[in-house]
């Protein structure tokens, strides 16, 4: 049984060695083999150099794929899932916020209950800025109300999946990816383990408040059509309201004459209705934007280099010719480059 550990890395030069150490410690007594697949998501620091060093030390166990630029964590996860060879696959952050100590428990639970997926969720959000927690909660509430795809509050991307589930996730090739939603959408038997929130071990989070807000808005738009309905609803309500007001004003003018005061209220109504229209257009525009991106069929990511390439060129240099293994991995890389 092989376990593939997928690790998206963006500016993680400090955390990678600590991460490997922690995983080794957690898995050393487990009757399982494991491989690492690091995805360097266009890091601006020395992450790639660190990855190369690590992979040189353990060429059979460590692999890396480096993107040509920052494509985002979603693209990195997708690349990782495509490249993973294991019968079991797990995705983990490099910063040890996904505790590797949970892995044995997850493996045991998966085995005991014959599950396809064991997810993890944070019991609490200790150490997180209050405003971020508030919006996170709001997001899960909105998401679960608006969308048929239910999401567990506090669930992490950190999860252990069977090959069957990974293949199902890979069948979803959409460009706008929201992994939490996709994991939930594909179904399969899933159970969650809870753990106390951890702070990042080193380095800095790459998510600002705004990037998270945008990400959650994308999540809702990707998995729900309710905002579109909301737009029509707002339009209908304001139309009916304006219609009734108009009748009222006409009747009042007929009965009591027309005092010419009141243009400030008129202007504010114009602005209000104009604002509503822009809001609705914005919501509709968001969906059209998604369709636009989807129809372009661009690749999810572009690979600059990878450990497989490196191993191949080493072999070619030595004149070792093509082993079936190497042509396979070349093929795999080609596929991952062209899929989109
Ligand atoms: N990450 C990535 N690409 C990005 C941003 C983040 O691959 O554009 C990786 C990052 O290296 C880390 C994981 O995604 O392994 C989670 O990121 P981070 O810790 O910054 O997010 P947070 O835990 O604060 O939500
Ligand atoms: Mg983190």
Automatic annotation (TrEMBL):
Keywords from the UniProt entry: Glycosyltransferase, Membrane, Transferase, Transmembrane, Transmembrane helix
GO molecular function, one term: glycosyltransferase activity
Enzyme Commission number(s): 2.4.-.-
Domain Glycosyltransferase 2-like: 4-168
Top-level taxon of the source organism: Bacteria
Region (Disordered): 310-340
Protein name: Glycosyltransferase family 2 protein
